[in-house]
Every structure is written in C-alpha cells, then in structure tokens.
C-alpha cells in the first residue's frame, strides 16, 4: 500500500513545527508527532479500515491496469494513481504503467506535478486504461533562474530568454555556444570555423567595449565560472539575462549579459542510469572552386605576357597543355572523419538527499589530416538535507581537453595545382605527393621573373609537424542553505577552480620547407591560473493579502590569480624528435621566459527587492556595489543600480473580457552594469631603467650613466566602464498560451570605455590608458513560439530574430586594426571611428575598370602630380575614387566601405511528435552583413604579396579583364600589380547573407525506454559567399567583425545515436 505524495506532504506540514518553537515546546510537539505518525501509518489504516470501510470490503475487487501519458504520447514516470479517499494506489513505473487491485465502482485519481488531475470510475470490465494528462497552465508557470534565486516566468520584469533544453539536447552540441546558436533572440553566436573543438564567439546585444572583452558572464549552479566547465548534456536549464535590469545584480561582471546554467540533479526516491551515444561521420561540404592545372598555367602565361616577361618554369609552357596533372590540395588536405560522443550518468535520492554523477567523452578526428580534438568531462552533484533547517550541496567538475593540428582552407586552395617537373631532356615528369618509400615530392614554384624554386608540400608539413594543446580544469563547489525562520533563508556558496594549460610545437629538419633555415624547432608553453569565489546572501519571502515580497541582500568575494606562465623555444637539436630546450646545439636560438602574475581581488555588496500586488503589478529593484583592485585606491568602487516594472494586463477584467489574450504583460526596465579589465598595472606608475641613459661631463669627456624614469603616463582617475541600458518589452499569449509572442526594444549606451589615447609628443609619452570612449547598441528583438497537440500529433514551432545597430559615439582619434602579415597593402583595413560601427571596414572605393589609355591619360593630365593613381596604371586596372578631390589617389582617399554587423540575425526550429516518433528541424541565418574578404582578394589574384604564383578562382581566370573582353567584374591578371589592384577596397566587400539548415533529425522511442535517432548537420547553406568560403565568421576580435582570412572548413555531419534510461 502506497500513500499519495500530497497526503504525506499534508501530514508533514502538520507535524513539522518551526524549528525554534519546537525547541521551546519539545514535549508538546513530540506528543503530536507521535500521534500523527501512528495515525498515518499503514498499520493504523489496517486497524481502522474494518470499522470505516465495511462497504468497500464487501464490493467486488478487480485488478485495474493502465498507462499514464502526456499529450505528446510520452509516458509519465512517477505519476500518482490512487483510489480517491484512501491511500490505496501506486506510482507509475518507467513506462508510465500501473497495476493494482481495487473495488469495482471506485474512483481513481491520477495526478502529477505540472498536470491537471483526472478522475476515472472503475467499471467491471475496465480493461487496460489509457490516461492522458493535460498540462496545467497555472502550475506549469515556468520557473526561471535569475541571479541569486528563481522567479516564476510570469513574474519577470526584465528581458530574459529561456532556451528549450530538450530541443537543445537532441542537437548534441559540443559546447555552450552551439547550444545557444539560433535559440534565443538577441544572442548572436558565430562559429570560428569548423574546428573540431567547435569554438564559438557569443555576443549578447552587440559590442560595448573597445579594448576589453565582449564575452558574456557564465553562472553555473549559482557560481561564476567558465562555459567550458560544463558538458551540455549535463544541463537542465539555460536562461540568458539580456537587459541591465536583469543583469545588474552581477554589477561590474555583467556588462555583456549573463548566461545562467543549471545542471541536472537527482530525483528524490528515484534512481536512474542514463547512457547516450552518438557516432558521426563528417566530411567537408564546401570547397573553393579553383582552377585546374591547365587553366592555372594558362593564367600564368597570360599574366606574364601582360607584363612583358617570359616564363621561367618551362613545365608550365603551352606545349604541355593537357598533359599536366592537377593536384587538388583541398582534397589532399582533408578527409572523412569520425566523431564519437558518449555520456553515462547515475542519479537518485531519498526523501532527504539526492545525487547526480556523470562522465562524458568526446573524440573528433577532424576533417583536416592529422588534426583531432578530445574532451573528457566528469561531474558530481549532491544535495543533502541533514537537518530540517539545514541543506548542504556539493559539486565537483573536471574537464580535460586536448587538440592537435589545425588548418585553413584558403592556403590549400591557393597552393599551385601542379607538381610537374622537367628532366634533363625536357620531358615532363609527374611528381607524386608521396613516393612509395615514404618520402614526399616537392612542387616547383616560380617567383616573379626569378628562377623556379621549391614550395612546401602541405601534406608533408601536416604529418611532420607536431602541435598539441592540453587544458585541465577542476572546480569544487560547497554550499549551505539554512532555513532560519518561516520565509527567511541564508545561503552561502563557495568555489575554487584551477586551470592548467600546456602546449608544444615541434617542426623537424625538413628540406621540403624551402623557406626555413633547415633546422628543427621546438617551442612549449605552460601556465596555471586559479580563482575562488564566495557568495553569501539572505533571502526573505513574505505574502499577505495580495502582496508578495521577495527581498535579498548579500555579499560576494572573488580573487583571481593568474599564477605563472613559462614558455621557451630553441632550434637545432642533436637528433630528430629531441624536445629539450636546454640541449640545443645553437644557444643563440634559445629563448626562455617566465612570469608570475598579479592577483586581482574584488569585493561586492548587493541587494534586490521583488514586489507584486495581486500578481498584476510587478516591480524589481537591484543595487550592487563593486570594489576592484584593478583600479587605484580613489576609484576602486562602482555602484550599479537597476529598476523595472511590469503590468500583467491579462489579469485585468477589461482584458479578460476580450477573450483574446491568455497572457499580456508590458515591461519596462533600466539599469547600469560595468566592467574592468587588467590586473591593476594600468593604474600604477612604473619606473624603468631600460634605455634610460644620460651623459655626464667629467672634465675630460662625456661618460654614459644609467638613469631611471617613468616609463608611461597614468590616469589617476581611471575607473569602471559603464553600460546603461533601457528596455521596453511586451509578452503576449494566445489560445491558452499555445501561441506566445515576445517583443523587446532596447538602447544600450556604453561609456567611459577604457582605451589607449594618443598624447602630444611634447609630453614624452605616446599614449595614456584612460576612460574616453562611448558606444551605442540599439535594436529590436522578437520571439514567436507555437505549441499544440492534434490527436496523436504534437507540434512546437519557434522563430526568433534580432535587429541591431552598433555605433561608435566617441573614441577620440580613430583606432585602426590590421590582421598581421597579410601584405597586399592591407594595413589598417578596419577602423573604430565616431559615427560608424565598431571595426568598420576602411579602404578605397572602386569606380570601375579603366577600359582604354585615353581615360588614364585624361586623369593624369588633370592631376597636379602628373599621375592619378600610378605611373604604371594600364587599361584593365581598377579605377579608384578620389575622395578628397585633389586629383590623385593616396591614403587620404580611404573611406568607410562597410561593416560586419548583420542587420538581422534569426533562428528557426520545428519539433514534432507522432506517437513514438519525433522529428526536428533547426536552422539559423543572418541578413544585411558585409564581409571584408581577404580570401576573395587572394583568390582573385594569381600571385601573392611576395611575387610567388598561386592558384585562384576558376571564375577569376575565366573572367578577368583582357583587351578582348571588357565586360568583366575583375581587373586584369598581372604579375607585378603596379596599380595595386589587390589593395583593400570595396571590390573585396562581399554580401554575407546566409541561411544554414543546421540540423534535421528523426527519432523513435521504444516502450522500454530506449530512443534511437539519425540526423544530418549542416545540410546546406544558402549564400552567394560560398564561392570564397563560409559566410559564418566568428573571429573573437572586436575590431575584426566580418573580416574573413579563411578558417578551418565546416563539415556536413551524418549521425546516429541512442539514449537509454534504466
């Protein structure tokens, strides 16, 4: 005989006294407890039943069987099925089944948390019952995790997006970025290529800093942590706090939004073992359409002839056309790769404690040869109620990641497609990539006008070089929750985490790498960092006559220690694979560095008040005061307040009577957050003797004496960056909340930005680190979700989007950005300038292509310098716009030519269930973004910046300007490029609009608890940019938004998987 859980809860509520009162009235309450336990015991029921239930005993008794399911057709585990008015019944098993004896005519009551209860009268021929429980819109009011607590979603006054974790889990994401991609309005997630680690760049409501970090804050189980510390399969909920009224409780850490993550816990009185497995096959789905050997060598001959130069690599001569072998370096450098992902977890608990432990393993072989990524995760969560008033929780997490190699598709596409040599008799030899003896062939190259030279064999380099990276992270959390009085609790959470990183790179003696010095090279790096956090706060909840008050006040302490960093390198070792820097044969190549890092400390005080009246009028106010050692003593503290209100109009009679809205809520919020960067050294004056000398006259001559001087100027008023944000929102629900719509408009002003500003030379310093910048982000967000059951069908469709405008309001002198070692006069290709988006593209504007010499001569004659562009400009060269109108082209004619911020980002998901089948479709995209494509430029030039020939787009060679073909979009092919057609210009601004169908999946769930599925990821990408690479660009660098220089290729992935629950 099993008691209904509500019956037990009612009895416990009666016999459980307040702890403090209990201590004063021990005897009295012991008596009550004893009587209650006796009366509630099964023995008592057996004794009493003969006297009060004679009529039941005399009725016919049958065995009633059945299954309890939800509206999706999924079994409900742990539902209560009892005979109404008695304690007779049971809890449904793993498949939702129940079976027990009861009298004919009895009333069965079926209930489960979050669902409407249902009653069924038992007839004599009941057979197998099928009970469908419907969701209770009132009790199912979603609970949302916010800073230092939880609130009902209906009570939210700020802008918070909840991620559907069930749908996320089906996509099998590797990291948090992939979990968030396309899942929440206002959250832009960009993958940094198809690297096996799946690294992403995440931005919430734009970029509001110049030299700091724009990454959001991650809070895992109430502890500020790294996103890499959690396996997405361990997550039970994700909330994204977007506006300042929601994030200000985290003050100076929350300028870029907050991602709240809650991991799985065990269930009381239930034990489970879960196992999931995913096996994937990956292949590169988009290669660049470059020229084959014949077309490439034809282009070389054309460009040589255009410049009046002869061919030096005779194997590329016209007489060998049709005989050349084509080496597809993109194909040779990539492979079909396997990816495996496993997770095993055990969870359970009793009435006073619960636990969850999991271990996960991921291995991705990588689609570029000799690259791989590996991850091991382990987590253990435990909660124990050791006293009626005291609960203890502990979490332990460990993550180890390792990777090897990497790659970039652009260099592979650019490598010359021939490995054809001539013997001493002038006969063509087809050189293989690899000989039978294991040695590698060497492709011949040709410099501009020089003799042929060797080039790298990319396959040899990939296999010979050894480059590995490993990271180990450990985090330990310990917390206490104390119930002090009714409604008053105290909670403390403390955590400590350590990160160890190590990496090395080894290149053997390799004569195939002609540009090297022929020496083997070894470098390595090690670092250790740690930090600990302590969060302590009181929470008080009070309800009376329609008034609800939730007050919280607390204190936080954080100390981060970057620990140490060691790195060294050397060349020329006694033997191959000798990896000991101290053993180098050439001490001049040895370089060893080490440093101990300064620790940073922060101390915070915070408070929050949540108030509602009759669940209609809502208010939330927070304040946080942060102090940081990153600033000088006079400016260490910053105050970050917020306030927001909401009005639930659907609770008003004049809205209820319309019978249109099942939910209607207006929200308005305002708040401030902040940020700081660095370890405090920017606020401290430093004295240096480096290169500080003066000359002293000793009566005979001058002698050099070492001196000391301040090596930089400091701003003694350095203080926090501040983000001030205003948010207007509306939440609407229709058809009993089957259709939900959320709209938000926000303005985010970031000011007092920390950056380096130029100083007058007369000061003796070049720049000063100060508060000087201002950036504004404003935009509109929407989210629409429809979920409905149609017979055996359940459908859930979601669409979200965000329109954003980023503008630099104040930055002083423009700040330029250059991607290192790019050549082609691509210096300062991005700029941070007042009135434009951060990292806007900066270059020349192309008016067209010169068609004849007369056009060039007319401009040269009108120029005061005698030349409009270059003395070597020829027909077929680009014609650049003279911005300042002075008659000639120079750096002053560069202009803002675009920016990489999309006008709109969006995501779409479709989920459907039919009985035991499930289907999912998920995609995302962007509209209105520009791409400054270094890839497009280099693929549209037959030579590189040092004069070596390189392969290029088939489209470019076939459609470049020639004297016979003037109707082209490409300038002429040339070796010398005296007109600098490859310089940064709007010729290389490409449309980056795209839509990617990221995942399509079909699954089936068996009665005994196993689900199997098959899926395809990255099925297709619709974009005009595909010919140059992938349009999804995430660099992680603030001033390089939308800048493409190539990356690890994206893959199409075919997966099968299963999940088991015992």
TrEMBL record:
Give residue ranges for domain TonB-dependent receptor plug.
153-258
SUPFAM superfamilies xrefs: Carboxypeptidase regulatory domain-like, Porins
Going by the entry's taxonomy, the superkingdom of the source organism is recorded as Bacteria
- For the TonB-dependent receptor-like beta-barrel domain, which residue ranges apply? 453-1019
Q: Which keywords describe this protein according to UniProt?
A: Cell outer membrane, Membrane, Receptor, Signal, TonB box, Transmembrane, Transmembrane beta strand, Transport
Pfam families reported for this sequence: CarbopepD_reg_2, Plug, TonB_dep_Rec_b-barrel
Q: What is its main location?
A: membrane
Which ranges does the record mark as transmembrane?
Answer: none
Where is it localised?
Cell outer membrane
Q: How does it sit in the membrane?
A: Multi-pass membrane protein
Name its GO BP terms in alphabetical order.
siderophore transmembrane transport
Q: Name one GO cellular component term.
A: cell outer membrane
Q: What GO molecular function annotations does the UniProt record carry, in alphabetical order?
A: siderophore uptake transmembrane transporter activity
**Family to which this protein belongs:** Belongs to the TonB-dependent receptor family.
Q: What is this protein called?
A: TonB-dependent receptor
Q: Which organism is it from?
A: Bacteroides uniformis
